[in-house]
Every structure is written in C-alpha cells, then in structure tokens.
UniProtKB/TrEMBL annotation:
PANTHER family cross-referenced by the UniProt entry: AT15442P-RELATED (PTHR20992:SF9)
Transmembrane segments: 118-136, 142-164, 176-195, 220-239, 246-270, 276-299, 320-342
The entry's keywords: Membrane, Transmembrane, Transmembrane helix
PROSITE patterns membership: HMG_COA_REDUCTASE_4 (PS50065)
Protein's GO biological process: coenzyme A metabolic process
GO terms, molecular function: hydroxymethylglutaryl-CoA reductase (NADPH) activity
Protein name, entry field: TIGR00341 family protein
Superkingdom per UniProt: Archaea
Highest classification ranks of the organism: Archaea, Methanobacteriati, Methanobacteriota, Stenosarchaea group, Halobacteria
Length: 436
C-alpha cells in the first residue's frame, strides 16, 4: 500500500481533484503558505493500492497535471470512503497489475546495493567462507557463503539500468559487480595461498579432484539455468511486492563459489581451474543481468523516452543511442563469442558422450549393467586438444567382469564427437538379491 503526496498549484487543483475522484480516490487537500488563494500551492495526499499507482499517475497526466513534487511512501493500512473500491478494481479485479512504478523500482534497486564499505566487506567474508567450503568439500559452508553475499543489489542495478535506459545506473551496477567479484577472487586467492603456505591444507592437494571445486571449473547447462532463473527471479521480485532478499541467495550461488574457485586456481597455480571458473563466472554474470533485463521488459518497463519517441524507428534509434545499450551489447557479445561458444561446445560434447555411453550399454551383452552416472572433465577448460576424461559409474552383478567396456565406450565417443577421450569405468557391485 502506498501513500502519495503531490504539490498542486491553485490553477490545477480543481482538475486534479476531479480526476482523482473519478478514479474512486479520496484526496485530502492542505494549503501551503499564506499567500492569496489565486497564487497558493496545495499539498494533495491520498492512499492507493500499490497496483494502482501507475494508473492514477497516468490519469493525472491526462488531466494536464505535471509532476513537479511527488512523494511515494509505504503505509500499513488506510480507511477512506472509497478505498474498498480501489482494492476491488486493482487488487482483486480485472485492473490488477502487480508491478511498481519506474521511480519506485529505481529506488528499490539503489536500496539493495549497500554502501561500499559494507558491500566489499561482506563480499570478502562471503568469499572466505566459500573458499573454506570448497576446500573442505562442504556444501553447507558453500551455501552459507551465498546467504551473506551482497551481489544481488549490483546485478539488479545493472538490469534496471539496462531496462529503463539509465546509463549511469547500468554502468554503476556493472562496475560494482565486476569490482566486487574481483575483490572476492583476490580474497579467495589470498586465503588459499595462506592455507597452503602454512600447511593447514596439504600443498600437494589436487584441488581438481575436490567435487565442490570440480563442479565450478567449467560452464555447464545446469549452471547456466541457475543464473538465468536467478536473474529473472530478481527482476520479477524487484518489480512486484515479492521479496527480493531470498533471490540474493540464487544470484550468489551463481557467482560467489565460482569467484572463490578462481582464487583457488590462482593460489594452486592451476590454469585449468582458474580459467574454467572465470569462464563460468563471466557466463553467469552476463546471464543474470540479461535475464533480469528481459524480465523487466516483459513486465512492461521501458526507458522514459520510449513513449515519447513516436515511431518504432525513432524508438530504436533512441534505444541504440544510449551508452547502457552499447555496453550491454558488447558485454553480451564477448560472453557469447568467448565463454558462450565454449559452453555450447562443452554441452554438445557432454550430450554426445552421454548418448554414446547409453548406446553401448543398450547392447544385449550389457543388459545386466545399470548406468549410475556419467561425468565429463575437460582438462584445461576445453581450450586445447588434450583428451577429455569421461568417468562412467555402473552397477554390475557379483562375479561378472566386463574388461572391454571402457575401450568400447571410448571408441563410440570418439566416433560420435570426433574428439580424443579417456574413459574410466567405475564398477559398483550389485547384491545377489538384485536383478540380474
């Protein structure tokens, strides 16, 4: 529920009050100052359901009122003669529109981004917790780092700036996001180097075998889905009355652990981990901002000049004349041409490898086997011609041996994908009471 206060000049008062009452709004008019009635200004205030704010402002604009002084605040409850009608129309009826005004969404996005000291301080703390969680292979600690990460505000600032054509806001959002994640990488690298040097963590630890790190060492389809959903959910939450704070965990899930993995790769001097996690981080950041922008556009948010630009050609000319648009296009282009193309290649290889494994196991000779999982390791994030490593886990009956299975899978994957591959098959025995 919102409480609006507008300043109205004496010559506009009758038109404003009539327009409000025609929409079932009950205004209170308060005179300002002690000048004569013809030159006096008035403060007009009234409560509205959140969903009605944009409609009432449009009504006032159509009545010839120009917003020179407008304050929109939150209130808990209101009782006016016709407020129930407003609720029926805009909350329960056909005129329902669950979105906030452009000014309010700008304010909400700014409020989500804390002051630099708090932002970078919480970023460092979340990166340290994420680094510890990755090295300990502890999902609980990794989730804990997501809860305290402050990245949601900067990412949504970039999305709102792109959707509304606010160059400064978009630039600040991108700058804050990149700077925050750079700080997270440095903090993770410093902690990793310190732990390794002080031998709290064995210097010979092969971090590529730690599951929590390996899963964040290259982009994948599921991580891309998480980033897209997080960005879209953030946009919807920001534009409606839904809570945005919960979405921050999803945004952090797509960014903070990946930044910590980059730092670990730097600390252990393993390019495969550092470059792979950085690729994942770039793809996720671009996906979050893009999905948030598209969600806001879907909900009807446009640049302020959009309605006044006239034809579609003039609108597009205005849109592509903004700095936010070009920065977004360059950022998106670099992501698509670089990490995005790598992601597509890796997804294609994963699909081909999984299909090849299933094809081999469909042979009657392997009817007694049950496929448990297929995992793919891309070496130096798939940037060179080194053989991909595919690990297949199957369940087999006690006493049965399949010595040729790995070589047959290798041949099939090589034939399907055209890439060199090393296959490892892990056998898990099935109890005698199980199916044969």
């Amino acid at each position: 529920m919102r409480h609006l206060q507008i300043r109205v000049e004496a010559g506009e008062l009758d038109a404003v009050v009539d327009a409000l009452r025609s929409e079932d709004v009950d205004p209170v008019v308060l005179p300002l100052g002690e000048s004569d009635a013809d030159s006096r200004s008035y403060l007009v205030e009234f409560p509205l359901p959140t969903e009605a704010v944009d409609r009432i402002r449009e009504t006032l604009s159509e009545a010839g009122f120009e917003e020179r002084y407008l304050v929109i605040g939150n209130i808990e409850s209101a009782t006016t003669p016709h407020y129930d009608r407003l609720v029926e129309r805009y909350v329960e009826g056909d005129e329902e529109e669950e979105r906030v005004s452009n000014e309010e969404i700008l304010t909400k996005a700014h409020d989500l981004n804390p002051q630099p000291t708090a932002y970078y301080g919480m970023t460092v703390l979340s990166a340290l917790v994420a680094t510890a969680g990755l090295l300990l292979d502890s999902p609980a600690l990794v989730v804990g780092s997501m809860v305290i990460a402050p990245q949601i505000g900067a990412a949504l600032m970039a999305s709102v700036g792109a959707a509304l054509g606010e160059d400064a806001m978009f630039t600040n959002g991108v700058r804050s996001t990149v700077a925050g994640l750079a700080v997270a990488i440095v903090a993770a690298a410093a902690l990793g180097w310190g732990l390794k040097t002080a031998q709290f963590v064995p210097s010979a630890l092969n971090v590529t075998t730690v599951q929590q790190i390996a899963s964040r060492s290259s982009p994948g389809l599921l991580t891309l889905v998480v980033a897209l959903c997080a960005g879209a959910a953030g946009g919807v939450g920001l534009a409606t009355e839904l809570p945005v704070s919960i979405v921050g965990v999803a945004v952090a899930a797509a960014t903070v652990p990946a930044a910590a993995a980059v730092g670990i790769g730097v600390a252990w001097a393993i390019p495969a981990v550092a470059v792979g996690a950085l690729t994942l981080l770039a793809v996720n950041v671009a996906s979050i901002v893009l999905a948030g922008t598209l969600a806001l556009w879907y909900l009807g948010y446009r640049p302020s000049y959009w309605d006044s630009s006239g034809s579609t050609r003039r609108r597009l000319r205005s849109f592509f004349g903004t700095r936010a648009t070009w920065v977004a296009l360059v950022f998106l282009g670099l992501t698509v041409l670089g990490p995005g193309s790598l992601l597509t290649s890796q997804i294609a290889f994963e699909n081909g490898a999984t299909g090849s494994v299933q094809t081999v196991l469909d042979d009657p000779e392997y009817d007694a086997l049950e496929l448990l999982s297929v995992s793919v390791e891309f070496g130096t994030v798939g940037l060179d011609d080194a053989p991909r490593r595919v690990t297949v886990a199957v369940q087999h009956p006690v006493g049965r041996q399949y010595p040729q299975l790995s070589s047959r899978i290798e041949d099939r994957i090589r034939e399907t994908t055209g890439r060199d591959v090393v296959v490892t098959v892990n056998f898990e025995q099935r109890s005698r009471s199980g199916p044969s």
